[in-house]
Amino acid sequence: MADLATEPDPGPEPAPAHGELGPPLVELRGVDKHFGALHVLKHIDLTVARGEVVVIIGPSGSGKSTLCRTINRLETIDSGSIVIDGRELPEEGRELARLRAEVGMVFQSFNLFAHRTVLENVTLGPIKAKGVKKSDAVARARELLDRVGVGNQAAKLPAQLSGGQQQRVAIARALAMGPKVMLFDEPTSALDPEMINEVLDVMVGLARDGMTMLVVTHEMGFARRAANRVVFMDAGEIVEQADPETFFTAPRSERARDFLSKILTH
Ligand SMILES: Nc1ncnc2c1ncn2[C@@H]1O[C@H](COP(=O)(O)OP(=O)(O)OP(=O)(O)O)[C@@H](O)[C@H]1O
Ligand SMILES: [Mg+2]
Asked: Which domains are present in the chain?
């Protein structure tokens, strides 16, 4: 880890203005993944452009989380390729550590360090994995905590925050690493209803600022407000994809229609 600190940090590239999509940032080609006999990702082809916001939706067990987890190599793949910003996902080692820093991930369960303050949760990664000077990491963390609306909670422990506040800290923590793309896996599904919007608003803000995002969510309001594209998965396959309006109002496949009728009734 320590030698990462000596690598020059090129810094984030300027994001394209909202509405304009850049060149491919994440490219999955022919990705297959099995868990034993179970074929969980079936020849997935998916390209996410720089600045694009893609919502992934689909029934439980369709492979949405697994897809996200392969993109920062929390899961290995059996065949195919994953390229991030022009570089193939490395197997292991220093290159993999560097790539992980470029791919921020926010989970359903906030996964904050319970015995560290909110501020420490956000500064630890940059200090330990990127060799950022503590004072710089603290200044950046304070900026990010302000941006997600929890600047006044910096000295608290995670357990002293509401779920919505904890999830916003988790977003700030991921952003502190300077990711090129952010992956969200059902970031609001563990939250009480009144806290969902405060997290979605932060995500919409990020999208408007040009962050490239891949978001697993069934929040159609978010998809309509922020997504360029909705990708519908079922049984390990991408069944169809379209802009949110088209997908929600005129899904083409029987499987998508069936799924939407179920989520729309409650
Ligand atoms: N580590 C694992 N070992 C074995 N099987 C797994 C593992 N992780 C996931 N699976 C299986 O792979 C399939 C896809 O799981 P995945 O978690 O990607 O689905 P999902 O679309 O995210 O579902 P949900 O909406 O319930 O979160 C499921 O059948 C699941 O049981
Ligand atoms: Mg899942």
From this structure: 23-264 (3.40.50.300)
